[in-house]
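Extended Data, panel c. Modelled sequence:
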Amino acid sequence: MRLKQFLQTTLNPAWYHGHTHKAPFFEGWYYKLVDASGHHRFAIIPGIFLSRTPHAFVQVLDGRSGSAYYHEFKERCFWAAKDRFEVHIGANRFSQTQLNLYIERPRQTIEGELHFHQTTPWPSALTSPGMMGWYAWVPTMECYHGVVSLDHAITGTLTIDGETIDFSGGRGYIEKDWGQSFPAAWIWLQSNHFETQGTCLTGSTAIIPWRRSAFRGFTVGLWHEKQLYRFATYTGAKTAHLQVSDDTVEWVLRDKKRELHIVAAQGAQSEFGLLKGPDRVEMGKRVAETLTAVLHIQLNDISNGQTRLIFEGNGRYAGLEVHNASQLLGMG
């Protein structure tokens, strides 16, 4: 039964994986919500942490103010289906197509229901189940990553601290992480607010423990005009350039056919909120994230000895995390 569950969850990254894992273990889903005006931007992160202080949680990041809230629940308040992506944390409900929130705490109150339409999952196949590629089949990875929906439409409202926000006409994005611990260092970025609706760039690079050593691995996906352009360690792509300053992240990726240039403008430090992240003992990592970065990207075809532009654009309301950049760059 455990083998069957492992096979099913590996092929369906959005599902809860904890049914076949023991502590230390965490799993969290990340909902990015941007209303039609772009004025309201939120990240809602439900999850479970199983280690020294086991508990469920719902984190909330207000991308406009940088305020972050961590709402903790008893472990028994967490429930997840075994045959689909459906998670309950107390009165809160989460799936690929819907989000219901009912949080009544002294620091924050949220109530409402959102629906997601025309969700766009990262393709999954036996040899490459989701964003992790064949690494998803390796049972000893420190941290796994998946994309539930690259882009989708939103309908519905949330009332947050007495203010009712209509997200109808807005766009959303859903991803997730699970495993024993977040990496020691990483860069993560994402935007699905380009000039062409439906285009999404998501990617990360991190220190990956491997046997008795480690390497700097990465996965980047550009979804454009219903085609996914992948650059990943497992596809044979290489990082040609990676530089981090106080203001920008510059990243160039290349394989035999294409080259992707990314420049992420980080924005003001005051717009970063501090989220909690897991290690093997506690939710102790302090993760700075902004939802106000801007990405400039350029994708070129470099086959046949010539350079041909495939896509160039700017992604607004971008999510960006840069954690222990010096350690990450030292792995290059």
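Residues 2-329 form one domain. This feature is highlighted in the accompanying rendering.
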